[in-house]
Amino acid sequence: MKVAIITGASSGIGRSAAIQIARRGTGVILTYGNNSQGGLETAAAIEKDGGTAVALPLDVGETGAFPAFRNSVADVLRDTWQRDTFDYLVNNAGFAHTSLIEDTTEEMFDRLMRVLLKGPYFLTQRLLPLMEDGGAIVNTSSNSAMGSGLEPGYSAYASMKGGLDVLSRYMAKEFSTRGIRVNSISPGSTRTRIADDAFERFPEVVPALAAKTALGRVGEPDDIGMMIAALLSEESRWVTAQNIEVSGGYNL
Length: 252
Known about the structure:
This protein is of the alpha/beta class.
């Protein structure tokens, strides 16, 4: 059985990706940050569907925890799947913060950098020795780093996501010698718990976002989760170093 690691799978896009990947017969190791209940609920939903999932805690912004996490992954692979390696990695964990450039603090800039760029960089580096040749990686970026998604207030967040897009191409270049494919996806506005449940707290923004989207609605987690699952799958075996906008045609 193939095994995937998905970070930030306690809700939203990560939860959807974990469930969609498991539905294709892949075992799942998923991580959660502060929302342990959400992580366990995702694992339970996969098990209820007949899949196999293990939930582990991980703060992607704390690289010092990565060696212990790698050891936990190795233990889980051996105990649950009798394997020494895994096949797929989804670097999805993150958070959003908006502020105009004039209002952005160094502390917030550094936190965004640690979670959105430094975390995926060094977590991938740490897990790479456990990864099977011929596997695949998907990094969750954002269309805020693209011309189509430019909105005031996202300068720091989008700069880190833009860095992740570049990193994805370099990963694809360097890991190709092992047959590992690497792509990134750039969701548009998606109804998740991001930014402290912003969609729940400010429902009035939804019609405006839908009006700017060619397909006439905001994204749902499964719109993105299915794309992640598809990029890991055999159908995408000849796709690497791509960044795919998954936004329903935002600002089209």
